Amino acid sequence: MTDPYSDRGNKDRSITREAPAHLGDPVPPGGTASPVEGTTPFLIGRAMTGGYGSGADILHDCTIAVEPGEIAVIVGPNGAGKSTAMKAVFGMLNLRQGEVLLDGEDITGLSPQARVLKGMGFVPQTANIFTSLTVEENLEMGAFVRRDDFSGTMEQVYSLFPILREKRLQPAGELSGGQRQQVAVGRALMTEPKVLMLDEPTAGVSPIVMDELFDRIIEVSRTGIPILMVEQNARQALEIADKGYVLVQGSNAYTGTGRELLADPEVRKSFLGG
Ligand SMILES: Nc1ncnc2c1ncn2[C@@H]1O[C@H](COP(=O)(O)OP(=O)(O)OP(=O)(O)O)[C@@H](O)[C@H]1O
Ligand SMILES: [Mg+2]
Fold this sequence. Notes:
Helix content: 25-40%
CATH class of the domain at 9-23 and 39-110 and 234-274: Alpha Beta
Bound molecules: adenosine-5'-triphosphate, magnesium ion
Shape: globular
CATH superfamily of the domain at 9-23 and 39-110 and 234-274: P-loop containing nucleotide triphosphate hydrolases
Number of strands: 10
Radius of gyration: 19 Å
Structural class: alpha/beta
Strand order of the largest sheet: 6-7-8-3-9-10
CATH topology of the domain at 9-23 and 39-110 and 234-274: Rossmann fold
């Protein structure tokens, strides 16, 4: 059987950023280097434990990460804590334990706004566009942190999503679900992020529109922006994923390459409908 997805996924290693400097233990004076345990991922929420306000913990020792050049996908049942994990990485949760590192820097204590300035783009699951503003105004809002001329970036967003150029003067609330998601992703791209986090970018769209959105997301990743995304279309998302995380009750249940998770009988049975 041929693999219909053999051309999918993000396998273009030429776009991969330079690997970050190894952040392992320093070499002791006069000693030999300790064994290399691998490099720190470009973005990682590591061993995160915490919940909302003073409420019970939702995340329990939960780790999600994305490497340069990768698409990492988080799947799991409703209420598993996928959005909570994304919000924690974006700084919307007070973690009781764990840390968030971006490009080797500990950003655990930073506000979401400060993280945007550091290069994080986040598209939340809900309320991710301004419905009463036009498409173009939404994109301009996305560029709010920029002091420079962002017209070139807007041009790039319109090239990626041509329908948005056509509809640029329409209120975003008048657009279809798939087009609204394009606005949301485009808005996040306006800050020229170093990493893009998407929470259910294909929610509520038809299979054809979902496929188109995935293609655009692959295209974004090929421009050198690593992507960490939550998806309820687990099977399709894992097909384009370099790395996958299955979260259950706020914990990591399974982690592997997209291919490994798709082939795992337990994952298939419990999370992919057999
Ligand atoms: N703002 C909030 N305040 C308090 N509890 C919350 C809040 N948001 C979510 N929760 C709780 O956290 C848990 C995990 O929810 P979360 O939204 O992270 O799950 P999810 O995996 O994203 O689910 P879905 O697939 O439905 O999007 C749930 O028990 C939910 O009720
Ligand atoms: Mg969610």
